[in-house]
Amino acid sequence: MGLSDIAAGIEVVDEQREAGVATVDRTADSLAERLDPFAAELPCSPAAAATLVEAYAEGKSVGASARVAGIPPTDGAKALHLFGENVSPVGPMGREIVSDWLTGELARTEAVELAGVSDQAFALAAYVETHDPIEGAMEAVESALSVDGSESVSTRDALDETMDGIGDLGRF
């Protein structure tokens, strides 16, 4: 392949095309309204899910957030999982045990004992393993669950004030 083959179809123009900046304005809809399209997939009403997310974003535990929303803690954990939060009550080994139970390699009583959790926690772990987060719902709650309420904040940006800059390295 020569340069003429590579350059085929390339043209030079005198002006650039105006691309602009893409913006998304979600301020008109409340969180509950943004969750309405996913009502059938949620373990609670969109209004309760919105209250749950707001309480969770304020730093409350999953159980405390669920109580604020007026729903059982397990339903709160399920909803938060569907929004992309890590709420599994088991670690990596527990996840393997749950997977083995789901594939029929272990009896439930043996799996619960090996995982070292209660029946309720095991049921939640099984739910987490068998239900994927809902993509659109994750986007609907993204701004509420971000560090400062903005659309997207990286961990580095959120912790920026705690990190030394390159100019601070000479002080040691």
| Helix percentage range | 40-55%
Q: Which runs of at least 5 residues are low in confidence (pLDDT < 50)?
A: 149-156, 163-172
Distance between the termini: 56 Å
Biggest sheet features = none
Shape: flat
Rg (CA only)? 23 Å
Structural class: mainly alpha
Number of DSSP helices?
A: 10
Architecture overview:
By secondary structure, the protein is mostly helical. The protein is 49% helix and 0% strand. It contains ten helices and no strands. Helix 5 (73-82) packs parallel to helix 8 (119-130). The radius of gyration is 23 Å and the shape is flat. Residues 149-156 and 163-172 have low confidence and may be disordered.
Please summarize what this structure is.
It is built from 10 helices and no strands. The chain is an all-alpha fold and 172 residues long.
Throw out a few tags for this protein.
single chain; 172 residues; mainly alpha; 10 helices; 0% strand; flat; disordered C terminus
Blueprint (SSEs and pairs):
Blueprint: H1 3-6, H2 31-35, H3 46-57, H4 62-69, H5 73-82, H6 92-102, H7 108-115, H8 119-130, H9 135-145, H10 155-158
Helix pairs in contact: 3-4, 4-5, 5-8, 6-7, 6-8
